[in-house]
Amino acid sequence: MFKHKHPYQPFIQDDTTKLIVGTLPPPRFSTGELLEKDVDFCYGSYYNSLWLFIDKIHNLNLRYDNSQEAINERKQFLIQKKIGVCDIVESAEREKIDASDLGMQNIVLRDIIGYLKQYPNIDTLLFTGGNSKNGPEYFFRKHIKDYNLKLQVVSNEVPRIHQFVISSKVMEFTQEARTIKTVSLTSGSGAANISISKLPLYKHLKAKNPKFNTFDFRVMQYSEFF
């Protein structure tokens, strides 16, 4: 069994308001066998596409290589936009060494609720995938059961939006209720292209513009939250 440990600590600042929550980067990021266009940072896989969407939305002209400059560009953007990253899986085991969420076994989750209590300015979680098995929303639903919390539906339209309420300690004997919004973004994986192609909105936009594709759809969707 391959022990797949997350290579990056959560990237969160004191003023972070949004938190990107995924699962695990591909195993090569844990073993250090990066590809030429990979960036040694959160969502650094060139084929994951998250940074490609963000790059397109903000015209950042990001580097895609193994350099420290490429890492710094991404950190600078996140800090400027008050966005953090805290994937929910700390480690997992795999029989097959690949990036499949379904291939994960003996999964150890991170304490996302603990981070929310530690960083009181966070009000939004951006899941990089939905509630399919071993996706970030799926794991988060399991995680919050330990805190007797439950997601409440705000919108069932893609991207699905939920909310929940946690209590944060303000002073030694004082608790303050805080509402957290969750947004289940369409995954950047190629497998999600099939589900996108079935969406009525995508079909409508594709009919109006035959050049409109799944990349454009994600850029349109992500632009509201990044």
Q: Main sheet, how many strands, which sense, barrel?
A: 6 strands, mixed
In whole angstroms, the N-to-C terminal distance is 37 Å
Q: Uncertain spans, ≥5 residues at pLDDT below 50?
A: none
Proportion of beta-strand residues = 15-25%
Structural class by secondary-structure content: alpha/beta
Helical segment count? 8
Kindly report the spatial arrangement of strands forming the biggest sheet. Answer: 3-2-6-9-8-7
Shape: globular
What value does the Rg take, in angstroms? 18 Å
Mean pLDDT: 92
Helix content: 25-40%
Describe the structure concisely.
This protein is of the alpha/beta class and 226 residues long. 30% of the residues lie in helices and 23% in strands.
Give me the secondary-structure topology:
Layout: E1 2-5, E2 18-21, H1 28-31, H2 50-58, H3 68-81, E3 83-85, E4 89-94, E5 105-109, H4 112-118, E6 124-127, H5 136-145, E7 152-155, E8 160-171, E9 174-184, H6 192-197, H7 200-208, H8 214-222
Parallel strand pairs: 2-3, 2-6, 6-9
Antiparallel strand pairs: 1-4, 4-5, 7-8, 8-9
What does this structure look like?
There is one protein chain. A hairpin with a 2-residue loop joins β8 (160-171) and β9. By secondary structure, this protein is α/β, with parallel strands linked by helices. The chain has a 6-stranded mixed sheet with strand order 3-2-6-9-8-7. The chain has a 3-stranded antiparallel sheet with strand order 1-4-5, with helices on one face. The termini are far apart. It has 8 helices and 9 strands. α2 (50-58) packs across α8 (214-222). Helix content is 30%, strand content 23%.
